[in-house]
């Protein structure tokens, strides 16, 4: 089927790589960043009515900083929910989509609910501000940061120059922006490469480049993204 490049962090890409290879794709993992944990002191999550987590990275840090597994966790999507469940958390609900869907889910809670927003150093949406306007008490815990890579790997550059890459897969606006910056000198070669994105936000981040096509999955889930790759769903 051709070579696909996965751009998310190595740990997240490992499972996706195996699944795509079973579907017949050759896969090369080119992480656009590494995740650095920022907090070491324990988290006391029982002080909050609900903990909002928007990424698998956040769940990983929480699992290391607390032994509590029955706390109420609200995740932005199914992937983060599954990760939390795999780490032993027993009361996890997925908003099923975007950060704005998390805000919609918070409507089920009464005003004055104490919310912990566990997040990375940088965010693309002011979830705290939106929740506070709705009457919730929100505290933030900045648990990790993302450090972008400085260059594309020699292996990835060779694949591009040899025309071996069918498409590049993007799960987040962050990875899209980093790849766009690092691949500027190869823009001519990208005209023969498709970009597969998980959301309209990722599409906008990629739309500054010279891609053959930029395709967007119908839903912001890996399942929908894989269907797009297989041609089962249209962009």
From TrEMBL:
Superkingdom, taxonomy of origin: Bacteria
Span of domain Tetrapyrrole biosynthesis uroporphyrinogen III synthase: 17-226
GO MF annotation terms: uroporphyrinogen-III synthase activity
GO biological process: tetrapyrrole biosynthetic process
Protein name: Uroporphyrinogen-III synthase
Organism, scientific name: Anaplasma marginale
